[in-house]
Every structure is written in C-alpha cells, then in structure tokens.
Amino acid sequence: MTTTMQPTLGPSKLPQVGTTIFTVMSQLAAEHGALNLSQGFPDFDGPEKLRERVAHYLNHGFNQYAPMTGVPALRAAIAGKVAALYGRKTDADAEVTVTSGGTEALFCAIQAVVRSGDEVIVFDPAYDSYEPAVELAGGRCIRLRLPAPDYRPDWNAVADALGPKTRLIILNSPHNPTGSVLTAEDLDALELLLAGRDILLLADEVYEHIIFDGAAHQSLLRRPALAERAFVVSSFGKTYHVTGWKIGYCVAPAALSVEFRKVHQYVTFASITPVQLALADFLAEHPEHHLELPAFYQRKRDRFCALLEGSRFRLRPAAGTYFQLLDYAAISDETDVALARRLTVEHGIASIPVSVFYRDPPGEPVLRFCFAKDDATLLRAAEVLCAI
Ligand SMILES: Cc1ncc(COP(=O)(O)O)c(C=O)c1O
C-alpha cells in the first residue's frame, strides 16, 4: 500500500486578511435586495464613444498581448495629461507604465521597493490593499491616524514616526474613505520633512479628478522634489466610470519605473489591449471628460446631501472622491459594523463601516456611502435614510 503525503499549508502569509468588506457588504446587499451604496462603483455606464472604441478594437483584430509597459499611444496620452494638468514633463517610454487597475500598480510599487524589515508609513483610515502588500514584501506598516473630522495628516506625528527603517510613505488624495484632500500646505510640509532623507513615496491618486468646490488636485507630480522619489498611481476605472475594466497606470522616475516594471511584468505582463487603444483615442478626442468630472460628481454630492437634510444623520465634509461619511451618533449606539449590517438587512440599504479601514478603530459612529449613483438611486437611498 502506498501512503500519500498530505501537504501542510503551514501558517498563513496573511493571517489578518479575510474577505474584503467590499465583497462582504456587496454580497449582503445582493442577498437582501438592498440598495448598494457600499462598494465604490457607479451604477451608470462609461461614455458611449469610449465603449464604441473598445468594441471597434475588439472587432478589428486588436486582441493579442499589448507591450509590457502599455500601448505607446496611451502612455503618450498619459504623459500629455500629466504635463497639461500638473506641469511635469515625463518620458512616456521610461516613466509611464499602464497597469491592470490602480490596485496592480499599488502592489507592484510596494513589491518593487519594500524589503524585509522596512517600515512603511500608512495613514488610518487606510484603503485596505496597502498593508497586505507591505506584509508580503516583508515590511511593516506604521499606521498613523488622520484626526477626524477633517482627516488631514499631522505632519509632526509623521516626523516623529520617521526612522532609519522608514522606506516608504503611502499617501492617498482624494482620500477613500473620508473624502479629505491634501492641500498645497500639506505638500510643503512633506517636502520639508523629506529634504535630505532617503525615503520614497507612493501616491494613490485614483480619485484625482473627483475633487470639489474649485480645489485643485495636489498631485505629487506638481512638485519636482516629491515627484523625483514618487510612484504616482491613477485609475481609468474611476475617471471613466468603468471600474470593471481594471485599468490604471503608474508614473515614476525612470530608475523607479525600471524596478516597478520588473514586478509588473511577472504580475500581469501586460494589460488588456483593446481597452488601452480605446482609452488612447478617447483621451485624445475628449480631454473635456476628465475636466468636467469635478462638476459632475459635485452635483451628485450636493444632491445627496440636500436630500439628507431632513435625516438624523450628520454629514461629514467631503472635499473629494465619490464617498460621503454619515455620522449616526443621533440614531444608534451600535458599532458601525453592526449598524451597517442591520441597515442592509432591515432597511435595504448597504454602506461600509469606516472602522474596517483602521488597525485600531477609534470607535467613531460613521458609515461610508458611495454617491456615484444615478439620481433615482440617490433619491431612493435618501428616502430610506431619512426614515431611519
Ligand atoms: C483609494 C483607492 N485606491 C485604489 C483603488 C483601486 O483602483 P482600481 O479599481 O483601478 O484597481 C481604489 C478603488 O476603489 C481606491 O478606492
């Protein structure tokens, strides 16, 4: 008789990680037929002309591997946009890489530079993909809190946290889940802090075009002293209402891009060809789309907030992204996780509890709602929320 050897899996490499809250809440919303304002995606389509261009390339033989770094026309269009918006000249061949979503770009940047024992500064509440990527690379996240209600970094606390092991600081502006944005003064403080220090930056700017009240997005690409040490990540999924296409990019100086591409080429090798070609055409033909995006989403934010005026929820300020935080202190003393579940199951509306974005949640009574929804959905959502 032969004995079979059962492989032992051993300890998990990511013991803290379960299924993301976005999947959990979206599943719960589907099970209970709830309005889904939890996961961050629009319930309307991307521009018709963009979809037509994808169909064109799909149907005309552009279905094989794209170049590893991205379709040249798209990289050139990205470099053109970066120059026009942020005044930074980038080399489209050496400094721009197209990726399968912002998520892939964040992962590759972290794997490319974080080594065993390195420390990475992350601000809580934090988007949930950063820490697992740092841990897989053998690094450790130092999580600093963004103080409520304006959720801006405390640069003195950052200064105190920097040490010989600090390798990378991860920034996210406009910020998910709070909707806060970095200001020019924040970038001044960061520049001062980093002068003479050997620390890299990873800027998650996937909501760069969703910023309100006339504010200008403070991309790290505006500041040569920051851009020279930064991976800057964006996502076409957010900009063109096509999150399911999973297409984004990373802009980084040539030396950083070389290391980034070493990882990217073995994570995905290349991203979807017909979509890249279509985006290149659309960016060239319709530059107004991203210029109109702030007004488009500001209208939705203002509409959602106006509809909630009669509710018992209190609105937290939202300067960017398509998320609105609602404070429920006047409604319930349940935890945000318990309330988010109950609202989904009993009231038919799904949101995201903000505590899941913290390592040590401060116990604040806030839920995150996504307002990237058509007007009828926002109206129905507000009716439900006003009745609670
Ligand atoms: C802050 C933040 N970064 C990155 C991403 C991921 O972007 P993508 O869908 O392009 O991978 C998201 C998506 O929700 C996000 O909110």
How would you characterize this protein structure?
The protein has helices spanning 21-31, 48-59, 72-86, 92-95, 101-113, 130-136, 155-161, 184-194, 224-227, 236-239, 254-267, 273-285, 288-307, 336-347, 375-386, and strands spanning 35-36, 96-99, 119-124, 140-145, 166-172, 200-204, 230-235, 248-251, 314-315, 323-327, 349-350, 352-353, 366-370. The chain has 388 residues and is α/β, with parallel strands linked by helices. It folds into 2 domains: 21-46 and 290-386, Aspartate Aminotransferase, domain 1 (Alpha-Beta Complex); 48-285, Type I PLP-dependent aspartate aminotransferase-like (Major domain) (Aspartate Aminotransferase, domain 2), CATH 3.40.640.10. The longest helix is centred in the C-terminal third of the chain and has 20 residues, at 288-307. The radius of gyration is 21 Å and the shape is globular. It starts with 20 loop residues before the first helix and ends with a helix. The mean pLDDT is 96.
Q: Can you tell me the residue ranges where pLDDT is under 50 for at least 5 consecutive residues?
A: none
The pLDDT mean sits at 96
User: Would you identify the CATH architecture of the largest domain?
Assistant: 3-Layer(aba) Sandwich
Strands of the biggest beta sheet: in what spatial order?
2-8-7-6-5-3-4
Over the alpha carbons, how many angstroms does the gyration radius reach? Answer: 21 Å
Please write the string of helix (H) and strand (E) elements: HEHHHEHEHEHEHEHEHEHHHEEHEEEH
Please count the helical segments. 15
- What portion of the residues fall into strands of 2 or more residues? 5-15%
Helix content: 40-55%
Shape: globular
CATH topology of the largest domain: Aspartate Aminotransferase, domain 2
The CATH fourth-level homologous superfamily of the largest domain: Type I PLP-dependent aspartate aminotransferase-like (Major domain)
Instruction: Return the domain count.
Output: 2
Count of distinct strands: 13
**Could you give a short account of the major beta sheet?**
7 strands, mixed
Distance linking N and C termini: 66 Å
What small-molecule ligands were found?
Answer: pyridoxal-5'-phosphate
Look at the helices and sheets and give the structural class: alpha/beta
